[in-house]
Structure formats: structure tokens, C-alpha cells
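Task 17 of the worksheet. Students: predict the tertiary structure of the chain below and write it out as C-alpha cells. Keep your answer in the requested format; marks are given for formatting as well as content.
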Amino acid sequence: MSVSRTGMDMGTGLGGRGGGGGGSEYVRPPRSTFLGQLWTMLGRNILLKRGSIKLTIAEIFIPGIFLMEFVLLGVLTNKFNTAYPAIPEFTEQPLSYPGFPNPFFPQSPLMYYPVACVPDTAAARNIMNLTATYWNAMNKTSHLYTLFFPSEEEMVKFYLNTSTSFPVRGAGGAGIVFEDREIKTLRYTLRYPSELMPPTSKPYIRDNIACRPLPDKNKTSGNSTLTPGLCYANAYAYTGFASLQNVLAAAFAKINFGIDDGPLLLSTKMIPEGPTKLINGGAAVASMPANYMSQLLSFYVIFLVIYVVTEKEKKHIASMEIMGLRPAVYWLSWVILYLILMLSVSLIALVLANVLSIWPKSSFPLLLIDCMLYGSSVIALGFCMAPLFRRPLVAGLMTYALMTVFGFLYLLETFIPNMSDAARWAMAILSPTAFFMSMARV
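Model answer:
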């Protein structure tokens, strides 16, 4: 007697070469194909969901709640956000030579622009005196006042310990550090208060409402003027950063080369701006749609892990493999089923996001690819967590909680604006964090 096992069926053949069988040799049926087993397992998984009616209802109802919240968020953001029209042309403005109120004589009409200079040498004093003369010629009401220090450390120490005297902290002023003590070459470093300069950490381009003023309704040309001191885009023009370099270069040219042409007459003009919509509430509100998308896709891991852990504990998986089921077929059947579910909800959510203009500058195909890649990582984590637990519900909830915690690591990027690129890449190893970071940037 010989026993043959084939596909998902057990077969027993009686007979042989010789007596007892009395017939031809038993022919072993061909084993079920991979695709045949996969099709059967997909049907079985659907029947399993039909039998677990409570889980299936929860699997439909709870993501539906997330979708309704997603729609409500889109409606609210559209209602309270500010839409800015296109600005075809900005007004040309001359380079600013600013001045700040004198803290010792606040009622005086004469303004002053404080500059700390390193080093304290005769050459430095000579070029800074001529620089002050050129500055005052460009703006009669602003006086360039220079204070000299022997070293950069002394200059910084004085700045940090000064509250009301020179320089005015949080109001204005600059520091200049010459590399050549005799000023034979014009190599220097400018230091400005952080309040006056654009962000120097990534991302360099940030939303700023002052850079998107509404056009003047009284003008037919559509020109728009920015209020100095508010827009990062023209900060180098109105803080004196460019102006100080202009008069400094003119002073250097006269002292070293005898060229007395004076400072250049420069003006600035911003490039046109297209229409945009500014999200009120900052990064916290801007990241909420990404949070809802993450929760929507992560929630399915609860049900996936419940099914897998239940079948593992009841020995269903081992029994099917004994009967000839390929292990890859079992896991692939769940992957296909849940990828179809995630694809469906992702399409619905992204269509709603497109209608509600939640991500107006984004690409629909790229967002869909992002969602599906994240969904595949959710499924992979569910498969990894399933062998670690014996209770199905606990396993599902713990996996979901882990995905949520990983996702909120994205907030570290908000709280630490100077985070290095290496740290961001390290955080992006975790797929929930990477998904948050990618969705919050669209």
C-alpha cells in the first residue's frame, strides 16, 4: 500500500506491482498550483469574514468614522483658512538703511544703527568710520554707531549681558568680525540677532503670512508692498544686512584703491506670487490630515492580527500546511485582501481630499503610492507581531498602539526645528514616522 498527499487533498492509492492490487500502478494526481491555492484561500478568507459578522461590521464602521472626521476637518480648514490671490507684481523698494530708537534718548528723532566690530585695530576703526559716513549719507536720520571689541568672544559676552544698552537685543544691530586685522582683504563675518534673520535651519522656505499681502484695492496695477520687518523673503533688504555690506565695500574701495564712487544705489523687487492658501494654526493643524490618514490605514492591522493569531492558536495554519498548503499562499492571501481594502479607503479619502482641497498642491498618484507603501508596511508589522501573542484582541490593539506611537515621533521634528538630516533619516526608518513626515509636507 502506498499513500500519496497532493495539493490541499489527501489521497490514498491501493495497488502495486504484484499481487493484491490486481491492476495498474497508482498514478499520483498533480499537486494544486500556486494560483489555484491562492484563489481558494482568498475565497476562504472572504467566507471567514462573512462568518465573523461583528468584526466585519467594525472593520467597515470604524474606518467610516475616520472618513467622516476627515471630511469634517476638510470643511473646517476650508472655512477658516485664508486664501490669497496671485500677486502679479510687487513694488520696487530702495535698499533700506534702517535705524532704531536710541535707548538713552527715546524722544530724539535721530535713530541709530549699532554695530559691534572685531578686532579693535586702527585699520578696523578707519574703515568703520568711513562706513559710518557713507551710511549716514544714505539715511540722514540714521547714525551708524560702532563699538569695538578685542575678540569675538568678548563681543558675544557683552551682547548676552546687555539688556537696555548697546546693542539693543531683539530690536536691531549687527556684529562684524574681520578675518584680516589690517583689513587688506575684505573677508568678514556678519552676525545678526536671530529675530531679524530668515530661518537658517531646514526647511528654509516656510509659510509666512506677511509675504502674502492682499493687493491694494485702490491700485489698478495690482502692485503690492510688503511691510518691512515682517516677511522673511526680503529680510536681507530691510534689516541692514545688504546695506551694511554695500557701504562697507565702498569704504574698502576708497581706502585701499582710492575709488571714491560711494555706495551703490540699489533697490529690490520680489518676484510675482501665484495664488495660495494659508493654513491657520500652523504645523499642528497642517499635520492633522496626515494623522487621520495614518489612523485610517493603521486601524486595519487590528483585524488582520486578530484573524492570524486566532488561526495560529487554533492550529488552523499548521493543519492547512499539513494538508499541502504552501505557506506563502496563506500569507499572500491576507496581504492581497487587506491591500484591496486599504486601496479602497485610500481612494475614497484622497478623492475627498481633492474635492475639499486639503492638499491642493499635491499629486494624486504620488499620494496613492505613499498610502499603499505605508499600508504594506502595516501588514508586514502585523505579521511580525502575530507570533508574539496568544490573545488575538490584545495582539491587534498592541500592534495598533505601536504604529500610533511610531507615527507621533514625527512631532519631534516640530519641537526640534534644528534637527539634522541624519536624525530625520534615522526617524524615517520607522514607516509610520516616514508616512507622517511625507504627508505633512504635501
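Marker's comment: Confidence is low (pLDDT under 50) at residues 1-22, 164-171, 215-222. Residues 110 and 140 are 9 Å apart (CA to CA).
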